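Subject: Sulfurtransferase

B.,
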Amino acid sequence: MKKSTIALGVLAAVTAVGYSAYNTLFSAKSVTVDAAAQEQKFTQYAHPEHFISAHQLKSMMDSGKDVVVIGALNPIKPDSPILGSYALWRNDYSAANGHYDFDGMSNSIEEMETILGSFGATADSTIVVYAAGSHHDAGRLYWQIHNLGHQDVRYLDGGLNVWKGAGYPTGSANQSVTAVEYKAPNPRQDNNALATLDMVIAAQNNPDWVILDTRGNDEFNGKVSISGAYGPGTIPSSVHIDWTKALNEDTTLKSAQELQALYGNIIKGKKVIAYCQSGVRSAHTTMILTEVLGATGVYNYDGSWIEYSHAHYEQKNPEVHVINGKS
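Prediction pasted inline below.
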């Protein structure tokens, strides 16, 4: 989406409801958590080093350590970012218009290197990603940075909501910094947790694989088709687990025990492909399966339903079948 279009949308929303009401309705809600209990929860995760609390992040930023904080924040919403962080949105880390026949794909390794370098990040930096509200966009950003081979990338549990709840400062983002050359430490192009359309087709009739549909009920049932898709439906043999089931009511992540109960029996002994509309919600689920439960052989389908529905409805690919779709 062009920034001019975003700006017009913001202006229209503010005009319609008034600035004060707009802030109240659409800004991230403050959430108060017990930081000690939250950090104890991380110790039960397979890879606790990839998660961080607001308390831990504040301490790290105050210490002057090499930490780069990046928020995936929707500019239409009136969220004030974490003070000292950088903010971007999906259009900033998605493929350029015209690169694919459909939208929603991730950008190139070189483009991600340029973004991170512009924030002053190096391969040795601690990179912390966060979002506001439901936090699936932080999961997507985590997935893209992790796939560069960056070792120290962390997900802020509860994101901006918990940061605000702790009373920590928000304000301006994207402060001026001297750009550096960021070089991806180990871009895993052959095995980077990326599922392709061919993999999805092959997995449908393979008992060694499970395909997870992480969308909402109405999308899974084919009752709705979100803008960007080419029609409604579901990938055959999909198992439906709405990605939000991994979250507590306060938007923080559930415990390892709860997440094992949710996913464990379904993925046990299987390789996994997760998908949604455009690979955002499924990236969050991919992070849960790999970093919380320690599962291996987990792939996020970047093209997700947008690419799959394009292949079915537009290209009429005879190998691409749909259930819960339209005839």
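The first strand starts at residue 51 and ends at 52.

T.
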